[in-house]
Amino acid sequence: MANAAIFLCAGSGTRMRGQVADKVLTPLGGHSVFWHSIKAFEDSGLIEHAVVVYRDDEQREALEKVITETNVDWEISWALGGKERQDSVFNGLSETSLLVDYVFIHDCARPMIRIENLHALHQAALENGAAVLAHRVADTIKRAAGSQRKLTARKLKDVPRSNLWAMETPQVFHRETVMECYRRLRLAGLSVTDDTAAVAREGHSVTLVENPFPNPKLTTPADLPYLEFLLQQYAQ
């Protein structure tokens, strides 16, 4: 049974406010942010094929250097990123081998992925066809009525959090299932923000794999020192 990983690196990173040239190539703990994801998958021994979704030729060249330095033993394919995340995922899926049974889809702006996470996701996907790394929502959540721009004097309504989960990556699916779901999504002209939404739209269930470890996404400059701290605290 063959497994592949799609590494999403093509995001624009606009919320980094120009403080770094490329967030997945930003140094973190002595290596690039991208390297940490590659290394976790390499150490897991779970995949034989990887597709790297890149933004432009300059970024691809830099990503190739990271892969060479990591000395991974995979078949590597490349896919150009699309306008939206779902376009990038579809482009990546299109480059996976027909021999692949399961595919891990991972946003490389999440460098804290752990080997045990990957094995737990793989097992859940084997049993149920789809799995996502996630954590329980701990904050009090409110729904605000009125305009999205004017925040003063808003009426707030509680949203029960007992069944709320925050999605992370990787997300793992049977390849043909998720590929067909994305084909139908494109034909319908609809948008989703993660892969579980694409398969849920077609009636498929997804197994939640609770992550006991922090796995934040690098989104703003303030996230970098926090990620450095986490790397020191949770080094494998």
Automatic annotation (TrEMBL):
InterPro entries: IspD/TarI, IspD/TarI_cytidylyltransf_bact, Nucleotide-diphossugar_trans. Keywords: Nucleotidyltransferase, Transferase. Gene3D superfamilies: Spore Coat Polysaccharide Biosynthesis Protein SpsA, Chain A (3.90.550.10). The keyword Lyase does not apply. One of its GO terms (molecular function) is 2-C-methyl-D-erythritol 4-phosphate cytidylyltransferase activity. SUPFAM superfamilies: Nucleotide-diphospho-sugar transferases. It comes from the Bacteria. This is 2-C-methyl-D-erythritol 4-phosphate cytidylyltransferase. It comes from Cerasicoccus arenae.
